[in-house]
Every structure is written in structure tokens, then in C-alpha cells.
Design brief:
The protein is of the alpha+beta class and 341 residues long. Helices cover 40% and strands 19% of the residues. Bound molecules: 3,4-dihydroxyphenylalanine. 3,4-dihydroxyphenylalanine (DAH) binds next to strand 8 and strand 9.
């Protein structure tokens, strides 16, 4: 019986090689490994053997089954490949047709601008310092030299929580105090990005939430020349080496002196257009030398330390760069807008 089994095996392997279609292959399977197939039949005959012959026979049957199964799988693969090849060569499939493109998401334009800003400041040695969105009145205003009755508070009306004195930050500037209190007495070079909130009428030019990127450098002998040099370098890296820039005096309670940085209009190149309101210049950030009171509130003695700070709005910068006319587009979640970036 063992001989008979080996013969069946040999023949089955031979006839398997001759199959060339799926139908051939399936009928081979039925005749060999199927429920009524030859090999299966053999296993049923074990009972007719002497008890001492049974284990060897059983083992051989199992080996043969496994090998035939493997050979079957390989043959199926071969037939499939041949089918595909014949379809391709008979032109049933046009492999030159373009594929269907898979739909992919992308980074939000605000995120793209933020990352561009991080990269530039990172190259210049500034680390990212993350600070909280929910602040106290003390950090958002008082420690930044904006006392309760200060008229500058009108510029920064905000959202209040049900806990008195706990508000949503109106700017990233309170992060300056957190960073100073954490790093004192080390020198500081950080940028502080994040979402800010203001209680405003939503219009094409103002939103109730937007990003800012704050910057802070504190150390010994930091001067206005460092501020001008560093911010000029940033503006050129961000908007192009050839672009003209200018500083204009301004007022912020937390810096003295304070300034604003303008770049030559990106859209008209200084000729004058609607975006720059025919001035040829675009305002991109506020800056100044950190006010002695703010340094002191951060723990740094203004007699020994000085520093500069700045704050910019990435959405505003993106609007200027891409000529976006309505700030509401950023959080409106309209794919027709978002897909353009
Ligand atoms: N916090 C200011 C604002 O929200 C922006 C700003 C101006 C930040 C000057 C600064 C700065 O650090 O020095 O309008």
C-alpha cells in the first residue's frame, strides 16, 4: 500500500504540472486532495494495515498531503500570473491609463506658515516655549505692565471663564513671564507660538481666535541694535533677501522703546496696491526692548539684564503672502479655500 501511495503522489505531481487553467487546477484538486480524492481515500484505508505498519503509513500520507498542497499553491500562483500577462498582452487592460489619485489631506495654511516661522527662528538659535491658552488676568495684563485701569486694555478685550480672573489669553505675551520665571538667571532665546482669543466683532479683518508667535531674548548687554539686526534677518529669511524693511516707532505697555516692523509690500513690490493701502509697506510685527517692570516681574534685575521681544500673527502674514482678503477663511473650514495650499 505504501508503494501505491508513492505512485499516486508521483502521478499527482506530474499531472499538476500539466494544468494550465483554473478549471484544470480545480479538477486536479478534487481528484487528489478533495474529499473523494485519491490521497484522501488512502488515509481511509489505514485501518486495513497491520497495527505496526500504521504509524509509518500515516506519517507518509501527511507528508504527501502537505507537499501536494504546497505544489498546488505554487501552481495557482503561476496560473494567475499567466492570466494577468495574457490580459495585458491582449490589450484588455490599458496599463497606460492614469491611476486614480488617492485623496490626501494636507497641512492647514496657518500650520504651514507657523512651521516656516519655527524653522527660521530655529536656525537662529531660538527654542519653542509652549505656554497656556487659559491665563489669569495677572499674567495676561498686570505682570506685563498693564494695570487694571490702563487704557491699553481696550485693545485686548477677551473671554472670561466663570472663575473670576481666569481668562483666555489675548496675546502670547504672558508666556514671556512664564519663560523668565522658569529660566532665571539663564539667558533666554525663545519663541512662544499659540492660539490667542479676543472678544471682537468677527469681520474680514478680525477674528475671535488666531495664532501669534511671540519672541523673547533676555541676557546681559542686549541692545536695540540686536533687536533690529535679528528682526531684519528674520524678515529677509521669511520674505526674501532683497526685500526692503523699516522700523516705525509705536507704543506697547510691555516694551520701551516700542516699534513696528514693516516690509515692502509683497504683492506690489512697493508700488502701492489695495493690500498695502497704497503705502507700499506691510506691517508684520510689533516689537521693542522689554520694559524694566516686565523684566523685574520675570525675576531679572533690569540694572543687569536687558532684552527684546516681538509678536507677530502668522495668519496675517499668510494673508499678506498669499493675498487672502478675509481672515474668516482660516477657521471657516471650507475645502475650496484649504485645498489651495
Ligand atoms: N502682544 C502684542 C499684541 O498682541 C504684540 C506684541 C507687540 C508682542 C510688541 C511683543 C512686543 O512681545 O514686544 O498686540
Amino acid at each position: 500500500m505504501l508503494d501505491e501511495l508513492n505512485l499516486i503522489y508521483k502521478q499527482a505531481l506530474g499531472s499538476l504540472q500539466e494544468t494550465s487553467t483554473r478549471e484544470d487546477l480545480e479538477s486536479w484538486y478534487r481528484q487528489t486532495l478533495g474529499r473523494k480524492g485519491q490521497v484522501t481515500q488512502m488515509t481511509r484505508q489505514v485501518g486495513q494495515l497491520k497495527p505496526e505498519e500504521r504509524p509509518m503509513f500515516g506519517q507518509r500520507v501527511n507528508e504527501i498531503k502537505q507537499e501536494l498542497q504546497l505544489a498546488y499553491d505554487a501552481q495557482l500562483d503561476k496560473i494567475r500570473t499567466a492570466e494577468i500577462e495574457s490580459k495585458i498582452s491582449s490589450d484588455e487592460w490599458d496599463v497606460t491609463l492614469p491611476g486614480r489619485r488617492r485623496w490626501r489631506g494636507r497641512l492647514h495654511p496657518a500650520t504651514q506658515t507657523l512651521r516656516e516661522i519655527y524653522r527660521i527662528w530655529g536656525d537662529m538659535g531660538f527654542q519653542i516655549y509652549r505656554s497656556r491658552d487659559v491665563e489669569t488676568d495677572e499674567y495676561n495684563f498686570e505682570l506685563l505692565n498693564i494695570p487694571k485701569d490702563h487704557p491699553a486694555r481696550d485693545m485686548w478685550d477677551t473671554f472670561h471663564t466663570t472663575t473670576p480672573g481666569v481668562i483666555l489669553r489675548t496675546h502670547t505675551s504672558p508666556g514671556q513671564i512664564h519663560a523668565m520665571r522658569e529660566y532665571y538667571p539663564e539667558p533666554i532665546r525663545v519663541i512662544l507660538p499659540g492660539m490667542c482669543y479676543r472678544y471682537e466683532q468677527i469681520t474680514a479683518r478680525s477674528e475671535i481666535q488666531f495664532n501669534q508667535v511671540e519672541g523673547l531674548a533676555v541676557g546681559e548687554n542686549i541692545s536695540m541694535a540686536d533687536l533690529k539686526g535679528t528682526l531684519s534677518d528674520f524678515a529677509k529669511r521669511m520674505f526674501g533677501q532683497e526685500r526692503k524693511i523699516r522700523f516705525r516707532a509705536n507704543y506697547f505697555p510691555f516694551t520701551e522703546p516700542s516699534a513696528e516692523l514693516d516690509v515692502e509690500c509683497i504683492l506690489c513690490g512697493g508700488e502701492g496696491c489695495q493690500v498695502c493701502k497704497h503705502t507700499g509697506w506691510l506691517e508684520i510685527l510689533g516689537c521693542g526692548m522689554v520694559h524694566p517692570t516686565v523684566l523685574r516681574n520675570g525675576g531679572y534685575d533690569p540694572a543687569k539684564y536687558s532684552g527684546f521681544a516681538f509678536g507677530m500673527g502668522p495668519e496675517r502674514i499668510a494673508m499678506l503672502k498669499y493675498g487672502i482678503e478675509d481672515i474668516r477663511a482660516f477657521w471657516g473650514n471650507d475645502l475650496r479655500f484649504l485645498e489651495q495650499f
